[in-house]
Every structure is written in C-alpha cells, then in structure tokens.
Write a structure and sequence with these properties.
Helix 1 packs antiparallel against helix 2 and helix 4 runs antiparallel to helix 5. It contains 8 helices and 2 strands. By secondary structure, it is mainly alpha-helical. A two-stranded antiparallel sheet has the order 1-2. The chain is 63% helix and 2% strand.
Length: 222
C-alpha cells in the first residue's frame, strides 16, 4: 500500500508549524501587552507630565512601536507623533521666557500629547476621540497646588545651593526669662547710681579703719 507524500509531509511538519504558530501568537500577545501598559501609563498621568511613569512610558515608545508587520502604517503614525512631541519638549522656552511664551509652549505640548494618544489608541484598536483624550481628565486643584509648591521649594533650594539666592531669616522674638530681665535692670540701675549725675565722676566709698576717720567721696573735684 503506497503512502501519499503529503501525508508524510503533514505528519512531519505539522507539529513544527503548530509550535511556531503558538510562539508567534505568544509574541504578538506579549507585544500588545507591553504597548497597552505604555498607553495606560500615558493616559493615567497625562495631567501630570512630570510623573516618573509618564516619562518612562514615553521613552519606551521607539522600542515597542517599531513599525513592522501588518500594523506598520499605524505604528509609524505613533512614532511620528512621539517625535513631534519630543521636538517640542526639547526646545521649550528658557528660564527667562515671558509668561505668554510659556503658555503657548504648554498649549502646543498639550496638542502634541493628544495627537500621540490618538495615534496609539488607533494602533491598539481603541476608539477614543480627541475630545475625550483632551478633556476626560480628573486633576484636583489640590494636586496642582502641591506640585507648584514642590517645584517652588526645589527651585529655591537650587538657587541657595548654587549661590543665586539666600536663605531669608527674621527674628520675631528673643527668648526671655523674667527673673533674668529683672536682674539685668537692677544691675543697670546700680551701675547708673555709681556715677555722679552732675559731672559723671565715679562715686567711691572709703571704708573707715575703725578710728572714725572714714569719709565718702562725693565724686566732685577738689
């Protein structure tokens, strides 16, 4: 009885194909999970761009969204959006920039972040609108005030440590002991009484030697 060649081929190759297919599915699943973690970190921290998780997620985009395979076009859109944002972040206003310039730069970065999240949303199969990505953020005022206070403290410390600023100090009250203050007043009174009021001469008391010849200098010149 002859054995068909394709039966032998299927018998030998089938397990290999099954294993490779399983590995491909696992790699694809792992890649999607890593991309989702990046997207989740950016979404969760998009109102606080100084958060460590936000910065780390941005720096992983080039690695995890490398254009390839059937999603190459969408992956390239993510990379392009990220590089546009990176360019603005690296060319921000200087420390001496006026307020309108800083506000305009922040607004431009906000737009870039929305574009990046929109591209990532499309690549991962989500359907977020740009309005949702821009407005759907909860960031309490207390968080904002705390962040500003932390930045102000860090900036003040930097200026002090680099010699650009000084530590402000003000003495509002000296510690006082009532008994000590009274003793000081009595000492000052006795010191004043030791001098003559008319000519300022020091008053000297001569103690008698027992013979009745003691006398007291009034402080006046002879």
């Amino acid at each position: 009885m002859s054995v068909e060649w394709w039966v032998v081929f299927a018998t030998l190759v089938g397990p290999v194909v099954a294993v490779q297919t399983q590995k491909f599915i696992e790699r694809a699943g792992d890649q999607r999970s890593r991309r989702q973690r990046i997207f989740v970190a950016l979404m969760a921290n998009r109102a606080t761009r100084l958060a460590d998780d936000f910065v780390k997620a941005l720096n992983l985009i080039d690695l995890e969204f490398l254009p390839r395979g059937w999603s190459k076009r969408k992956d390239q859109a993510v990379i392009d959006a990220w590089h546009a944002l990176l360019d603005d972040l690296n060319h921000g206003p200087g420390a001496d920039a006026d307020k309108p310039t800083t506000i305009a730069w922040n607004a431009r970065c906000d737009d870039r972040i929305v574009e990046l999240l929109a591209a990532m949303s499309s690549a991962l199969g989500y359907s977020f609108t740009r309005e949702q990505l821009r407005r759907g953020i909860y960031h309490p005022q207390g968080f904002y005030e705390r962040e500003q206070a932390q930045l102000a403290i860090l900036d003040g410390l930097r200026k002090i440590l680099t010699g650009q600023g000084a530590l402000p100090m003000a003495v509002t009250q000296f510690p006082a002991n009532p008994d000590f203050a009274a003793a000081q007043l009595e000492l000052m009174r006795r010191a004043a009484d030791a001098y003559d009021e008319e000519n300022g001469a020091l008053k000297v008391r001569q103690v008698s030697d027992g013979g009745g010849n003691g006398e007291r200098d009034t402080g006046k010149p002879p």
